[in-house]
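stage 2 :: seqdesign
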């Protein structure tokens, strides 16, 4: 079957860091050994990211919460779109001015990963600037 995640590299990352793989999205990979499949509420999703050692995702919200909680995370390209609309532009906008990037599904080895740490001092400044800009926009729009 064709998966939406590069299972091989995620398994290698888990082995390298001695981590368990928790899958919280569909489809569930019941036939894949070593993967725990969970269905979770939004609160549980945020809890899992907050308490994760490392996050592998193709989810915009997985990226946002990983950044908020300053987690090492890897975002993998999606090989599907929703209603014919590709969501890749959301990631480009989110990652603008950072070293973060989406990783192609063809990635097979640890050497294919574009970074092994994230400069959160820099990213937190970007987040704070964007947050201030958003609050100012809302205040001006509501007054």
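stage 2 :: out
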């Amino acid at each position: 079957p064709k998966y939406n995640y590069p299972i091989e590299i995620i398994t290698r990352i888990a082995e390298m860091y001695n981590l368990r793989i928790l899958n919280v999205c569909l489809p569930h990979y019941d036939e894949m050994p070593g993967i725990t499949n969970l269905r979770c509420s939004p609160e549980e999703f945020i809890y899992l990211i907050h308490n994760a050692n490392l996050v592998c995702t193709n989810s915009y919200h997985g990226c946002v919460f990983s950044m908020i909680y300053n987690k090492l995370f890897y975002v993998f390209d999606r090989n599907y779109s929703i209603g014919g609309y590709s969501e890749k532009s959301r990631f480009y906008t989110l990652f603008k001015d950072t070293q973060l990037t989406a990783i192609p599904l063809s990635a097979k080895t640890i050497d294919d990963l574009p970074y092994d740490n994230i400069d959160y001092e820099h990213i937190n400044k970007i987040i704070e600037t964007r947050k201030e800009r958003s609050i100012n926009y809302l205040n001006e729009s509501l007054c």
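stage 3 :: structure notes
- Residues 120-142 form the longest helix (23 residues).
- The CA atoms of residues 21 and 33 lie 10 Å apart.
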